[in-house]
Amino acid sequence: MGGGSNSIGLFFEFLGDAGVRMIGVEAGGRSIRLGDHAARFQGGSKGVLHGTFSYVLQDDHGQVANTHSVSAGLDYPSVGPEHALLRDSGRVEYTSADDNESLEAFHLLSRLEGIMPALESSHAVAECLRHQGSGELIVINLSGRGDKDVETVRDLLE
Ligand SMILES: Cc1ncc(COP(=O)(O)O)c(C=O)c1O
């Protein structure tokens, strides 16, 4: 999840269905240190950014923190307020996947299925891998293609 519009599009239809567990995945970046990730629920606190009250990565003075993610689309210090509500109500769980896990997921889905996921979507694939063998039926919101990311991945491999 970046701002969260992709994921809310999938979550919305299932909010009333208690049989569906939903998980949003934020960017864990390179470490849990402020400035090294974009995991607003894990490392942020309540605040206002762009006129919206939600969770924000910020310092003790309310200054918005720098963020990092291997994926440009997740590299954002706040999150849509509807997700903040869903998180606080407990309806949706929010986790994070770090850069390395997401890159591994990128390679795995490319190799196994011939589907190259966007690095943003690779975070969701990384979360899915944690549920391997659980017997759960899982739907992944594969929000985009990884063609746009091949140069980033190649540079990281080098
Ligand atoms: C392919 C892809 N997936 C997901 C996202 C994140 O989307 P959202 O801001 O809706 O969470 C982006 C953002 O640029 C994206 O490019």
How would you describe the overall organization of this protein?
With 158 residues, this protein is an alpha+beta fold. The chain has one domain (5-157): Rossmann fold (3-Layer(aba) Sandwich), CATH 3.40.50. Helix content is 34%, strand content 16%. It has six helices and four strands. Strands 1-4 form a two-stranded parallel sheet. Strand 2 and strand 3 (52-56) form a beta hairpin. Helix 4 (99-113) crosses helix 5 (119-129). The longest helix is centred in the C-terminal third of the chain and has 15 residues, at 99-113. The chain is globular and about 45 Å long. Bound molecules: pyridoxal-5'-phosphate. Pyridoxal-5'-phosphate binds next to helix 1 and helix 5.
Question: Could you give a quick summary of the protein structure above?
Answer:
Helices cover 34% and strands 16% of the residues. The protein is an alpha+beta fold.
Q: Which key terms come to mind for this protein?
A:
single chain; 158 residues; alpha+beta; Rossmann fold; two-stranded parallel sheet; two-stranded antiparallel sheet; 34% helix; 16% strand; binds pyridoxal-5'-phosphate
Distance between the termini: 27 Å
From the coordinates shown, what is the CATH architecture?
A: 3-Layer(aba) Sandwich
Summed up, the domain count is 1
Biggest sheet statistics: 2 strands, parallel
Level of helix content? 25-40%
What is the succession of H and E elements? HEHEEHEHHH
Beta content comes to: 15-25%
> What's the CATH topology label?
Rossmann fold
Class inferred from helices and paired strands: alpha+beta
Low-confidence parts: none
Give the overall pLDDT as a whole number.
97
